Every structure is written in structure tokens, then in C-alpha cells.
Amino acid sequence: MPASADILPDPTGFAGASNPVGSPESLAGLARLDKSHFWHPFTQMRDWCESPDDPLVLVSGRGAILTDAQGRDYFDGNSSIWTNIHGHRHPTIDAALREQLGRLAHCSALGYSNEPAIRLAARLVEVAPKAPPPAEPLARVFFTDDGSTAIECACRMAAQYRERVGETGRRRFVSFDGAYHGDTLGVASLGGIPAFHGLFAASGYEVTRLAAVEQLEALDAETASSVNAVVLEPLVQGAAGMRIWPPGMLRRVRDWCDHHGAFLALDEVMTGFGRTGRIFACEHEGVVPDFLCLAKGLTGGYLPLAATLTTERVFSAFLGGYEEMRTFFYGHSYCGNPLACAAALASLRVFEEERVLDSLPAKIGAFSIALEEARDRCPHFGELRQIGLVAGIDLVEGRTGAPLDWREATGAKVCLRAREHGLLTRPIRDTLVLMPPLCSSEEQIQGAVRALERAASEVLGAGAWGT
After folding, report:
1. Is the preceding peptide bond at 134 cis, omega within 30 degrees of 0?
2. β partners of residue 139
3. Which helix (H) or strand (E) is 77 found in, with range?
């Protein structure tokens, strides 16, 4: 496979010579070890292990570029599965980690504390979305490990809160078709994608799944009074193929929850930290949730860390004497890990020092133009959905516009071909996903769109690029 610079020259923003690392012999040995022992997530391992091609082994990164073991460069087109914010090897975050390593790598949060976790909790409360009274501010932060546990934490807090205050009839959670909130047993039951939740739907929470806000508003009084919390990905559902909610939907859900005494838990695991053009997606509609769940970009994409923010009202329900057993019985060994918290503090500092949000409108505009132009040129690009620096492009049959047979894994084939054009990304079935790091240049973003367009034309046939 040729280097990216051979196919996409300098104007694409992908070029950048790197020295190969690792001999062919050592790479072959890594490939054997990988296929013998490494079970990859969300991967059909029969295809992986039987493939004649060696796995792509990434060894370094700089900015929005990743480099493989043979020295080839790629644009990180999905932000390393939606986590990276400011780019790889950002000097501010690197320095914060080195400084913290000289002090303390980890300590328990069960009965102890540490400075980075304390400061991060305070900082998250400071940057959390705000709304005028009577909206309750987010004032308390509970740390966990990843997005799934952040949502799990919110659901358990909500469930235990109802027990503490004597509202035991509120056991129902409401979620939406197409939702994905993680893979732990409880939150898997909330999901609206059968491939993820089907085995566990009967084992988790009592869940009512809806297709639209109108169905929520149409719930009868008895059902509404049984709702503990509505769990929602604000503005856009990621795993559903970057499905964008209608404008105003989030505000309507918040109003319904207020009217019926239900909690609103927002899953900002993907949308948080600038992806939609603001720090949090819920800010677009002036909504403050009762639970705000964060992960992925929280540390800038450096280390696993999650946070669940909630109100003083929820926190207070867990206060009491030891013998009352009102404690929130939940936690993980690495809650509030000092290294991860140091990275998160540094990432928030980068937002301020580099005025990251101010740089986004121009990049978002360039992204929109590039996507629209690509759709006009490529007959295999169907519906296009974009919000901020998040986009999904449906692949379709060129002559009729009909959906493709998902069993052909065309989206995966297109993304594999895109590697030859210097782009790394991963589809959701036949929806191509682009979610570039916020540090990406306009030229890099435009180059990523061109790479997908070219790959689609090569895999599916005639288009602007030919075959």
C-alpha cells in the first residue's frame, strides 16, 4: 500500500514524512501475536484472523495525524473512536502527565482523595451548563471509568434516590429507539439497537423505548407518574448512524420531565467537549439536565475517565448516619485516577488558552461545504447528517439511491480503501462517519472528505474520481 502522500499530495494536509519503525520481521511477529491472542472489540474475529493482511499497528501520533509501524501517516478521521480532542501529543497535556507522574500515578478514592481529582470536580462544576432558576445547578461530580459506567452511575443514582425519598413507584426509565448508552448490563437494557441490547433487555432496568418526543408527550398520566428518568443523547445519536434530533426536541423533553417530576439524564459521552461547536450539546437549547454524563473527550482522548454530574438535591438524599445505609454503594478502583484527572484539567486549560471554541465556526463551515460538494459529485453518497464536527454519510446504490445490503459490509470496505488515501475512520454499517479532532485544519478536514469520496467511488464504481 503506498504512503498517503503518494495519493493525496500536500494540499490535502495529510502529507508528513515519518521514519519507518520496526523491521518487517518484527511486524510479522506482532501480526502473529495479535491474531493469536488479541480479541478486538466490535470485530468479527474470524475475518480478522483469517485475513491475509497484517493488522494496522499504530505507533505514534502528532496533532490529527497517526503513524503506523511502517512510517505511513493517516488523518485520525474519527478522533480515535470519538475520544481525541486537541490532537495527539499535545504539549500541554503531555507536560501535565509528566508532572503528575513525578508525584502520584494512582491512589484510591475510597476514603482518600487527591489534588487533580479535587480540582477537576470543581472545574467541571464551573464549566457545566447553566440555566436560570428554578433550574437546579449541577454541583456534584462522581468519577468512573468510561461512558457506560457514567450512564450506569446516573441510573443507579436515580433509582437509589427514589428509594431514599420514598418514591418507590418511579421505577421506569425512558429511552429512545436507536439509542446506545454503553455495554454494562444495566445501560445495555436502555439501548435501542437490538445488536447491543437484545441479550440483556430482560436483565436490566424497566424501560420504555420511544421513537420520538411526541410519544413521550402522549404517555398517559399513570405511565408518566412511574417514570424515574428520561435518558437521552442530546442533539445526535451516535451509534444510530449520526441521527440528528429535530430542533427543539431536547427542550421539549426537559419541559416534560419538569412537568411530571422525572429526571433528565443526558449522555454527552460523544457530544461533550466541543464536538457540536459548544462545550456541551445541551447548551444549544439552553437545557440543564439532572444528570450530565461525560467520558471520551474528557481527558482529551488520553486516558480512560468518566464523570457523572448531578444536583445538590440528589446528593443530599444520600446523606445520613452510618446505620441508615443511605450511602451510594457504587464505585470503581480507578475512580478519580490522578493521571487521568491531570490530563482532563490540562485539556480544559487548552480550550481556554487556545480559544478552541472560537476556531470552530470556520472549520465547521469548511466541513459543511466539503460534505455538500462531495454529495453532489458522488452518486453513492445519500443522506448527509452533520452537526458541528460530527457527520454521517449514508452509502446508497448509485442509480436508484436505494439502501445497500448491509450484509455486504460496504461501509467497512470503503473505510478500508480510505486508508490508501491517508484516512482512518470506522463506519456504522453503511453510514460513513467523520469526526475529526478539534485541532484539525480546514485543509485536513477537506482532505478527509475527499478521501472518503474517492474510496466510495473506487469500491462502488463510477463517480467523480472514476474507477
Report:
1. yes
2. none
3. none
Bridge pairing between strands 73-76 and 65-68: antiparallel
Q: Roughly what angle, to the nearest 10 degrees, separates helices 442-460 and 356-377? A: 30
List the one residue out of 301, 273, 395, 277 whose CA is nearest residue 78: 301
Alpha-carbon gap, residue 235 to 387, rounded angstroms: 8
**CA-to-CA distance for 103 and 99, rounded, in angstroms?**
7
Domain boundaries, the chain: 4-86+356-460, 96-353
70 residue type, one letter: Q
DSSP sequence for 272-285:
TTTTTSSSSGGGGG
* Dist CA 387 CA 276 (whole Å): 6
174: nearest Cα among 131, 137, 212, 122 = 212
Q: Which CATH class is domain 4-86+356-460?
A: alpha beta
Grid coordinates of 411: 461501509
First to last CA, the chain: 17
pTM reported for the whole predicted model: 0.92
CATH assignment of 96-353, given 3.90.180.10, 3.40.640.10, 3.40.50.10860, 1.10.600.10? 3.40.640.10
- As to burial, measured by CB atoms within 10 angstroms (0-12 exposed, 13-18 middle, 19+ buried), residue 108 is middle
Alpha helices in 317-391 (DSSP H): 338-353, 356-377
Task: Please give the average pLDDT of every successive group of 10 residues along the chain, which has 467 residues.
Answer: 36 37 75 95 94 94 96 97 98 98 97 97 98 89 97 97 96 95 89 69 83 98 98 96 97 98 98 98 97 98 98 97 94 96 98 98 98 96 98 95 95 97 97 98 98 97 56
Cell numbers linked to 22 = 520496526
Beta strands 291-294 and 306-311, pairing class: antiparallel
User: With DSSP H G I counted as helix, E B as strand and the rest as coil, what are the percentages for the chain, rounded to 5?
Assistant: 40, 15, 40
Beta strands at 423-424 and 73-76: parallel, antiparallel or unpaired = parallel
- Whole-number Å distance between alpha carbons of 190 and 196: 10
